[in-house]
């Protein structure tokens, strides 16, 4: 397409946590075209297939919600109403419920795709003014186990390294992640580094062979749930072969003796048997890690989305701590954030269990600091409901109303039946979204049309703590409004107007930045103006002339009380629901390359459907054979939670005894039979409250039409 009279804007991709920089060209007819921003230090001009097609989601408004719509009662159809009518009703219902049942009867369920300013406002509204901590986010489903582990092991939820460390490392352990598909630009940097430096070693741990494993020197195709056993065995090997950093352990950590005792309690041969891998390969991993100058572990949902997710994280982080490979160039444990602004959401305290600037909800001084800053009497001490707890509370009647922003829980939360029952049982459901493709709209009493990417301004923070600015490039369609505008209008209807009067969204960022002052995530040196003028910054950025902070813990002083990192000794038993005679296979769920979450955006882009256009079940040839299943046959996957029907994809890239379903498909595309979360269990990690998406016992049978 040749564009005339172009105007050019810099912005940020709004899909994954890599946070790539984009240049958007707009012609005089409003047509958009995107390309990578060569000046962005993280993405260096690159974009993946999703990013390269992001502008199509903005230009195709056929699915967009254009006006507020409301039901006058549960059985009536949605009808177009004015913004005032819709928000007056929402305020009246919220006030009535709060008066009758208390502030914990309402809650907000938001998204790691919300901008930092949006997260800040909704957090301030419920915690400071409504008086409840009932705000949680779909980021709970992706990174909360890593957050807990970082905080406990290092003293703070702080990713220690940057993407630039990739080119400085000579050994990588990629655990429970497929960055080639899910963090593609990080993978491209890794791939290029390996191509230039063949001695760089890559170890991948995944029950599936993926595009990422194609560049691995060592692939541990482990039995699901045995991750801790494997990392402890590697730890044992490092100790046995004297590949640990004894000085670092002695001077900068605590807990090593108990860890050593634990890992020495099982031989590497025994561990290999439990994990379903070769003992020799464990020794090779020990060799690669042990001789590396720079060692980076990278992980994602395979570790986090587990009933033992926090412990899996500890066991991996321990390998960096015992080798002293942290706070040094090309070294550190690196959690790959799934969503574009999961980190920004945590900066403002946008979870039910935390406060702004990573303050601690349990700490009375921290609560007072936040309450004083907002000019409110108090912030409640009691933690709110976390993601899955919120929907259980709605189902049971402990919560009465929910306001869902920019997320589609009917497809994305585990154990979908509970979510359906919750939304049916709720007294009042508000859905604030951009698209009528969100399945949850069907259950909404009030639908509020929101502005999308390119239609609003704000900031996001990516996986490496890098804060980026997003430009407004086009106007939202119809009557859609930026989320902050909707929330501030609602706050005024609730009577909190004086504290929600902003002339510009940059003032919201300034208010958030002020609240971080003096904390470890200080961004008080940043403003929209500085981000627009100078580009991106990695926090902390404590002064207006600070260049930001690419690497943390360079002095090996950790953020714990005694400045030492903690090596946690954790049990290695998996606590997922085990396979049984009736349900002998282990189901794991995950992403495909060209789709994002529940496909409300990517599902409407023709080019992205060319890769994979329908749900499928990956099954090993031996498991298919005993079930008389041939390639492409329709199969029914079932367990005590529900059923899914898709076609079989027979492949030896998956471990025998394990099957894989993509997580993206839901009801909206008439593919209700493909909704993977019909089968996932209600189990969550007891500390992080992250669901056990990667381990559900199921049976698979050939579908026979009756
Ligand atoms: Fe967007 Fe992530 Fe792709 Fe970068 S890697 S273009 S942030 S989806």
TrEMBL record:
Residue ranges of every copy of the 4Fe-4S Mo/W bis-MGD-type domain listed in the record: 6-62
Superkingdom as given in the UniProt entry: Bacteria
Coiled coil (residue ranges): none
Cofactor: FAD; [4Fe-4S] cluster; Mo-bis(molybdopterin guanine dinucleotide)
Keywords: 4Fe-4S, FAD, Flavoprotein, Iron, Iron-sulfur, Metal-binding, Molybdenum, Nitrate assimilation, Oxidoreductase
Family according to the record: Belongs to the prokaryotic molybdopterin-containing oxidoreductase family. NasA/NapA/NarB subfamily.
Name recorded for this polypeptide: Molybdopterin-dependent oxidoreductase
Originating organism: Rhodocytophaga aerolata
Species classification: Bacteria, Pseudomonadati, Bacteroidota, Cytophagia, Cytophagales
Portion of the full-length sequence here: 1 to 706 of 1170
């Amino acid at each position: 397409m040749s564009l005339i009279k172009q105007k050019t804007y810099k912005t940020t991709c709004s899909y994954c946590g890599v946070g790539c920089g984009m240049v958007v060209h707009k012609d005089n007819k409003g047509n958009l075209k995107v390309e990578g921003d060569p000046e962005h230090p993280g993405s260096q001009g690159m974009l993946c297939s999703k990013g390269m097609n992001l502008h199509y989601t903005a230009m195709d408004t056929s699915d967009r919600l254009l006006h507020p719509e409301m039901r006058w009662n549960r059985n009536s159809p949605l009808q177009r109403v004015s913004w005032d009518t819709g928000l007056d009703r929402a305020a009246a219902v919220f006030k009535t419920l709060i008066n009758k049942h208390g502030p914990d009867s309402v809650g907000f369920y938001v998204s790691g795709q919300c901008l930092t300013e949006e997260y800040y406002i909704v957090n301030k509204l419920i915690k400071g003014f409504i008086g409840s901590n009932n705000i949680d986010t779909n980021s709970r489903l992706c990174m909360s186990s890593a957050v807990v582990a970082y905080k406990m092991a290092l003293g703070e939820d702080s990713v220690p390294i940057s993407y630039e460390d990739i080119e400085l490392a000579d050994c990588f352990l990629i655990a429970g992640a497929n960055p080639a598909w899910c963090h593609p630009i990080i993978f491209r940097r890794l791939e290029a580094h390996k191509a230039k430096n063949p001695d760089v070693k890559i170890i991948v741990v995944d029950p599936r062979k993926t595009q990422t494993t194609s560049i691995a020197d060592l692939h541990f195709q482990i039995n699901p749930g045995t991750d801790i056993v494997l990392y402890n065995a590697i730890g044992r090997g490092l100790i046995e072969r004297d590949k640990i950093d004894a000085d670092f352990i002695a001077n900068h950590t605590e807990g090593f003796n108990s860890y050593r005792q634990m890992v020495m309690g099982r031989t590497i041969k025994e561990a290999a048997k439990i994990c379903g891998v070769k003992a020799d390969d464990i020794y090779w991993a020990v060799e690669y890690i042990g001789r590396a100058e720079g060692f980076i572990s990278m992980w994602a949902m395979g570790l986090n989305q587990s009933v033992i997710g926090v412990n899996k994280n500890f066991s991996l982080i321990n390998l960096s701590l015992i080798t002293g490979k942290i706070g040094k160039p090309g070294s550190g444990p690196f959690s790959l954030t799934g969503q574009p602004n999961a980190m920004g959401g945590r900066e403002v305290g946008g979870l039910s269990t935390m406060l702004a600037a990573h303050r601690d909800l349990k700490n009375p001084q921290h609560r007072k600091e936040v309450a004083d800053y907002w000019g409110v009497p108090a912030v409640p001490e009691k933690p709110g409901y976390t993601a899955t707890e919120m929907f259980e509370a709605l189902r049971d009647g402990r919560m009465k109303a929910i306001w869902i922003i920019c997320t589609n829980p009917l497809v994305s939360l585990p154990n979908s039946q509970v979510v359906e029952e919750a939304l049916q049982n709720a007294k009042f459901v508000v859905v604030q979204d951009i698209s009528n493709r969100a399945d949850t709209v069907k259950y909404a009493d009030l639908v509020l049309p929101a502005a999308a990417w390119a239609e609003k301004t704000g900031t996001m923070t990516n996986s490496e703590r890098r804060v980026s600015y997003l430009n407004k490039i086009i106007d939202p369609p119809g009557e859609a409004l930026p989320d902050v505008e909707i929330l501030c209008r609602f706050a005024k209807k609730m009577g909190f107007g004086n504290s929600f009067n902003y002339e510009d969204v940059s003032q919201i960022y300034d208010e958030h930045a002020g609240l971080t002052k003096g904390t470890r995530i200080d961004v008080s040196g940043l403003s929209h103006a500085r981000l627009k003028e100078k580009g991106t910054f990695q926090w902390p950025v404590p002064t207006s002339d600070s260049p930001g902070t690419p690497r943390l813990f360079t002095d090996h002083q950790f953020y714990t009380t005694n400045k030492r990192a903690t090596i946690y000794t954790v049990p290695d038993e998996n606590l997922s629901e085990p396979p049984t005679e009736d349900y002998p296979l282990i189901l794991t769920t995950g992403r495909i390359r060209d789709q994002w979450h529940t496909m409300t955006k990517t599902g409407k882009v023709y080019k992205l459907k060319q890769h994979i256009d329908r749900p499928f079940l990956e099954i090993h040839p031996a498991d298919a054979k005993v079930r008389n299943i041939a390639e492409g046959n329709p199969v029914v996957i079932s367990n005590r939670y529900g059923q899914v029907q898709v076609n079989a994809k027979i492949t030896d890239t998956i471990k025998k005894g394990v099957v894989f379903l993509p997580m993206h498909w839901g009801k909206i595309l008439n593919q209700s039979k493909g909704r993977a979360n019909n089968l996932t269990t209600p189990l969550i990690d007891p500390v992080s409250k992250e669901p056990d998406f990667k381990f559900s016992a199921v049976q698979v049978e050939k579908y026979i039409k009756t």
